[in-house]
Amino acid sequence: MSDVDFDTVLEKYEPAIGLEVHVELNTATKMFCGCANEFGSEPNTNTCPVCLGLPGSLPSINGRAVESAIRLGLALNCDIAQWCRMARKNYFYPDMTKNFQTSQYDEPIAFDGWVELDVDGETYRVEIERAHMEEDAGKSVHAGTSGRIHDASYSLMDYNRAGVPLIEIVTRPITGAGEKAPAVARAYVAHLRELVKALDISDARMEQGSLRCDANVSIAPLGAAGLGTRTETKNVNSLRSVERAVRYEIVRQAEVLESGQPVVQETRHFHESTGTTSSGRPKSDADDYRYFAEPDLLPIAPSREWVEELRATLPEPPAQRRARLQTDWGFSDIDFLGIVSAGALGLVEETVAAGATPATARKWWVSELSRRANESGVELDELAITPAQVAAVQALVDQGIVNDKLARQVIDGVLAGEGEPAEVVERRGLVVVSDTGALSAAVDEAIAANPGVADKIRDGKVQAAGALIGQVMKAMKGQADAAKVRELILEKLAG
């Protein structure tokens, strides 16, 4: 592809996006059998005749999964079906041994919902077409250098994931976002992740696949009556990647159209290392799957009384929670928007709950740790440090054991797996030096080496002390008590 400017594309084309987010539920067992719903087990150990689709086996539906689906539907402002059924989605692929996936088709449990997102100070309303229940498929393990099928010498199948309860949330086409379309996609998936965590129905760990996004993208000439041909980028597994995948597809499709070729309706794969997508397979329409009602499962008819009981269990709505936290923490709109934009709201909240002040929690997550996450190409909550550990780092600063500079080295140690913050301090010898004798000697050396600066301080230019403090801090490898050093400098150069 040539290097086409994203903004130039938007001068001629209008993007439309549609997002399908799959949420794996944290139920104890699978959707239709009693096998353990556990991540990371040895391959093919959490299986049975039902989830392997062996002849004569009969499924039974997981009641907790139905409850989770209803609660999520309510949180998405959906209507809850009074009567719905499971269906068979037929396809031939090795990830389901029975050659069909038990899902829902034209009778989802939740439908016609909406959410509102704040993106850079603008509000975007995303319409939810449906949220339906289904089971996950097994996992293909391709033996090759990239882990992709195209260079694999053979593939293996792990059926532990086959039958894991899923809820798929499908939006209606999101139009009118223009240049903000990639950011809106990211904000929507972030909103869903925050919501399912608050509902406690999934751990929503994108890196483990328990929350995955399929991003549908199309573009059409400005003013066109309809939408363009869409592509579906499958299983995008981070917020950053959702934004990058949508942005890339908008530009790629524009280049295809500008070359005089049509956009092909297909699934595509996102490549994390390059930020690009590649062709997968032609995209199937619903008719290709030959849906029909699942004959081995009874319909689901949640009573209105039960639905209202579940509505009463919903957590505080995200917008209301954000408004409350901003008031409680006393942040300006700009400072609070920085927390939200960084995806750090929950992390800051947990850090405050662990004992840090809102200001110090914000400082670490929005600046220092966000920088590290960006450099590593991971999401903020994927860093190997917990809110409790960040609060412990700040407590060491508050106690005068370390300063901010040393605290960054403590964070280095925690991220490197060297233990808890206090253990890193001890192992690395990072304690601030407050001993007057040691500091006094270092101050004397700095004064002797910088007579011009010393004279300025003697003449009353106290701000010049910063230069000497910096010299002492450098000489003591950042471990000097800066306040004590300043006190000694002014004392020695007084009058």
UniProtKB/TrEMBL annotation:
Identify the stretch(es) annotated as Disordered: 267-286
Q: What is its EC number?
A: 6.3.5.-
Instruction: Please tell me whether the keyword Protein biosynthesis is annotated for this protein.
Output: yes
Does Lipid metabolism appear among the keywords?
no
Q: What class of enzyme is it?
A: ligase
Q: Which SMART domains match?
A: GatB_Yqey (SM00845)
Task: Note the Pfam families from the entry.
Answer: GatB_N, GatB_Yqey
Alphabetical UniProt keywords: ATP-binding, Ligase, Nucleotide-binding, Protein biosynthesis, Transferase
Catalytic activity reported: L-aspartyl-tRNA(Asn) + L-glutamine + ATP + H2O = L-asparaginyl-tRNA(Asn) + L-glutamate + ADP + phosphate + 2 H(+); L-glutamyl-tRNA(Gln) + L-glutamine + ATP + H2O = L-glutaminyl-tRNA(Gln) + L-glutamate + ADP + phosphate + H(+)
- Swiss-Prot/TrEMBL GO biological process terms: glutaminyl-tRNAGln biosynthesis via transamidation; translation
What GO molecular function annotations does the UniProt record carry, in alphabetical order?
A: asparaginyl-tRNA synthase (glutamine-hydrolyzing) activity; ATP binding; glutaminyl-tRNA synthase (glutamine-hydrolyzing) activity; transferase activity
Known Gene3D superfamilies for this protein?
1.10.10.410
| Domain Asn/Gln amidotransferase, residue spans | 346-493
Tree of life domain: Bacteria
PROSITE patterns reported for this sequence = GATB
Self-association and partners: Heterotrimer of A, B and C subunits.
Function as written in the Swiss-Prot or TrEMBL entry: Allows the formation of correctly charged Asn-tRNA(Asn) or Gln-tRNA(Gln) through the transamidation of misacylated Asp-tRNA(Asn) or Glu-tRNA(Gln) in organisms which lack either or both of asparaginyl-tRNA or glutaminyl-tRNA synthetases. The reaction takes place in the presence of glutamine and ATP through an activated phospho-Asp-tRNA(Asn) or phospho-Glu-tRNA(Gln).
Provide the family line: Belongs to the GatB/GatE family. GatB subfamily.
Q: What is this protein called?
A: Aspartyl/glutamyl-tRNA(Asn/Gln) amidotransferase subunit B
Q: Which organism is it from?
A: Tessaracoccus oleiagri
Organism classification: Bacteria, Bacillati, Actinomycetota, Actinomycetes, Propionibacteriales
